[in-house]
C-alpha cells in the first residue's frame, strides 16, 4: 500500500515535472519567437532607416549639385533687369556724384603702347626652323630642355620635347639662362649652368646649382607694324599703322577708365544680402562656361593631333566636382554685386537704352547674325551688358579727371 501510494506519488510528480518542463519549453519558444520578431522588426526598421538616409543623402546631393545652364537670360527681363529683385533690399550704394579720377591711374602711355604692339607682333611671328641666323638679345626662340640638380632631374625641369617659347632678355628664366643662348643657332645643343636664387619659390631648389641641356628648335621671325601688316591682319580696327596706334590709344584708355570706375563702385558698395535665385542662376551659367572651355581646350588639342591635356572636368579644375560646386557661391558674388549696383544706378538716374543703341551694339559686337546672337544669349543678357555700358558713359560724363 505504502509502496503503491509512493509509486503513484512518484508517477504524479514525474507527470507534473514533464508538464512544468513542457510549459517552460513552450514559454521559451514563445520568448524566442517574440525576441526573433523584435529582432526582425528592428532589422526592417534599420533597413528602412538606411534607405531613407540614403535617399535623403541622394536628394540633398542632388539639391546641392550645381546644374550647368546655357540660358543666359533666364533670370533677366527683356529690359536686362534682374527678375523679382528690389535692388535696394540687397545693397547700399556709395556716393558716385562728382567722382574725381586720378589721371595717372588711367592714362595709357607710349611705353604701354610699345609693350602691347610688341606682344601683338610676337603673336604673329613665324617659327623659322631652317635658318643660319644666330640668337641675339630680344629674339623669341623655341627651345626644349632637361634640367638636373646634383645629377638628378627635378619636377618642372623637363619640357618633354613639347617645346616652349622664350624671349631672350625678358628675365623669364633664372640667373643668366637666357644670355647663355646668345650666339647659338637652330639645332645647337647648349649646356646652360645656373644657380637658383636663395629665395626661389620651390624650396628644394633654392640656392642650388643646376645644369640644363638645351636644344634650340627655332628662331621666330617677328613682323614689323607696317601699313601692309595692319591692312592684312587688323583691318577691323584700322587700315594704317598710325591709324591702329590711334585706335589702341583710345580703346586702351577707355578700358582703363572703365576698370577704374568699376573698381571704385565695387569698393564703395556694401552688400547686405544676395538674391538667392539670381545667385543660383549665375552659378549655373559659370559652370556651363567652365565646362564649355574645358571641352573647347580638349577639342583644340585633338584638332591639332595632340592628346588632350585633361582627361576629365575634375582634372581640368584641379578639384572634385563637389568642391568646385561649393566654391561657385563665392566666385559669382562679385559679378552679382556688379550687376546689382549698375542696375541701381541705371534705375535711379532714369537711364534708357534705345532701340538704335541696341542695334548698334549688336552690329559692333556680333560675329554672327542678329537672330543667332539673340537665340544664343537672349535679349535680356544683351540688354544687361548695354545697361552696364550706359551707366559707365553716364559716370564718365559726370566725373572729373585730374
TrEMBL record:
GO function terms (MF aspect): peptidyl-prolyl cis-trans isomerase activity
Domain PPIase FKBP-type, chain residue ranges per copy: 138-238
Compositionally biased tracts (Polar residues): 1-12
Catalytic activity annotation: [protein]-peptidylproline (omega=180) = [protein]-peptidylproline (omega=0)
Pfam families in the record: FKBP_C
Any Gene Ontology CC annotation: cytoplasm
Enzyme Commission numbers on file: 5.2.1.8
Superkingdom per UniProt: Bacteria
Signal sequence coordinates: none
Top-rank EC class of the record's enzyme: isomerase
One BP term from GO: protein transport
UniProt function note: Involved in protein export. Acts as a chaperone by maintaining the newly synthesized protein in an open conformation. Functions as a peptidyl-prolyl cis-trans isomerase.
Similarity remark: Belongs to the FKBP-type PPIase family. Tig subfamily.
Descriptive protein name: peptidylprolyl isomerase
Organism (species): Anaerocolumna aminovalerica
Lineage of producing organism: Bacteria, Bacillati, Bacillota, Clostridia, Lachnospirales
Amino acid at each position: 500500500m505504502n509502496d503503491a501510494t509512493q509509486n503513484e506519488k512518484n508517477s504524479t510528480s514525474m507527470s507534473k515535472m514533464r508538464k512544468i518542463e513542457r510549459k517552460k519549453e513552450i514559454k521559451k519558444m514563445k520568448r524566442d519567437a517574440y525576441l526573433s520578431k523584435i529582432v526582425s522588426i528592428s532589422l526592417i526598421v534599420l533597413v528602412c532607416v538606411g534607405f531613407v538616409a540614403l535617399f535623403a543623402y541622394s536628394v540633398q546631393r542632388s539639391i546641392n549639385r550645381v546644374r550647368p545652364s546655357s540660358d543666359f537670360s533666364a533670370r533677366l527681363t527683356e529690359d536686362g533687369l534682374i527678375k523679382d529683385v528690389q535692388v535696394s533690399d540687397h545693397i547700399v550704394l556709395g556716393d558716385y556724384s562728382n567722382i574725381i579720377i586720378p589721371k595717372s591711374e588711367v592714362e595709357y602711355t607710349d611705353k604701354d603702347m610699345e609693350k602691347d604692339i610688341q606682344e601683338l607682333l610676337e603673336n604673329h611671328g613665324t617659327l623659322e626652323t631652317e635658318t643660319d641666323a644666330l640668337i641675339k638679345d630680344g629674339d623669341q626662340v623655341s627651345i626644349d630642355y632637361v634640367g638636373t640638380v646634383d645629377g638628378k632631374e627635378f619636377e618642372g625641369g623637363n619640357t618633354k620635347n613639347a617645346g616652349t617659347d622664350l624671349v631672350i632678355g625678358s628675365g623669364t628664366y633664372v640667373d643668366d639662362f637666357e644670355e647663355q643662348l646668345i650666339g647659338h643657332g637652330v639645332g645647337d645643343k647648349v649646356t646652360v649652368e645656373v644657380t637658383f636664387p636663395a629665395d626661389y619659390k620651390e624650396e628644394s631648389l633654392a640656392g642650388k646649382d643646376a645644369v640644363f641641356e638645351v636644344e634650340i628648335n627655332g628662331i621666330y621671325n617677328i613682323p614689323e607694324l607696317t601699313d601692309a601688316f595692319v591692312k592684312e591682319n587688323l583691318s577691323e580696327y584700322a587700315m594704317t599703322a598710325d591709324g591702329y596706334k590711334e585706335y589702341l590709344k583710345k580703346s586702351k584708355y577707355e578700358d582703363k577708365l572703365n576698370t577704374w570706375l568699376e573698381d571704385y563702385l565695387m569698393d564703395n558698395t556694401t552688400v547686405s544680402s544676395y538674391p538667392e535665385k539670381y545667385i543660383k542662376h549665375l552659378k549655373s551659367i559659370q559652370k556651363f562656361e567652365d565646362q564649355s572651355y574645358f571641352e573647347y581646350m580638349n577639342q583644340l588639342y585633338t584638332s591639332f593631333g595632340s592628346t588632350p591635356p585633361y582627361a576629365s572636368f575634375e582634372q581640368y579644375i584641379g578639384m572634385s566636382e563637389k568642391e568646385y560646386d561649393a566654391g561657385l557661391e563665392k566666385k559669382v558674388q562679385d559679378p552679382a554685386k556688379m550687376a546689382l549696383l549698375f542696375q541701381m544706378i541705371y534705375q535711379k538716374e532714369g537711364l534708357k537704352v534705345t532701340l538704335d543703341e541696341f542695334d548698334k551694339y549688336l552690329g559692333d559686337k556680333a560675329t554672327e547674325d542678329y537672330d543667332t546672337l539673340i537665340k544664343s544669349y537672349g535679349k535680356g543678357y544683351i540688354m544687361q551688358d548695354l545697361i552696364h555700358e550706359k551707366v559707365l558713359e553716364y559716370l564718365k560724363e559726370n566725373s572729373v579727371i585730374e
